[in-house]
Amino acid sequence: MAEFSIQTLMIAISSTVAERSRVLARIAAVTPEIDEEEHLSERVMDIDRALGELGSAYESQRQGARRYPDYEALVASAEGR
C-alpha cells in the first residue's frame, strides 16, 4: 500500500467526513424510496469503511508526530463539534 503524508491523510479524512455529512443530510431530506434508489445508506456504510481505513493509516503516521490531533479529535473538528 502506498504511504501518504499525514497532511494528505488529514485532508482526506476531513473531506470524507464532509461527504458523509452531505449524504446524511440528503437521506434526511428524501423519502425512503429515494434513499433506496440512490443507495444513500449503502454510501454511508462505504464512507464509514473508508474512514476506518484512513483513520488507521493516519494513526500509524501520527505515531512519530504527536503534535497532530488524534483521529477522533480530527473527525470532531471536521464535523464542527
What is the radius of gyration computed over CA atoms, rounded to a whole number of angstroms? 14 Å
Helix content: over 70%
Shape: elongated
Averaging pLDDT over every residue, what do you get?
93
Outline the low-pLDDT stretches. Answer: none
Describe the largest sheet: none
Strand fraction? under 5%
3D structure, described in words:
The protein has 81 residues and is mostly helical. Helix 1 packs antiparallel against helix 3 and helix 1 (6-29) packs across helix 4. The mean pLDDT is 93. It contains four helices and no strands. 78% of the residues lie in helices and 0% in strands. The protein is elongated and about 45 Å long. The N and C termini lie far apart (32 Å).
Which helices and strands, and how do they pair?
Layout: H1 6-29, H2 32-38, H3 40-62, H4 71-79
Briefly, what is this?
With 81 residues, the protein is mainly α. The protein has helices at residues 6-29, 32-38, 40-62, 71-79.
What tags apply to this protein structure?
81 residues; mainly alpha; 0% strand
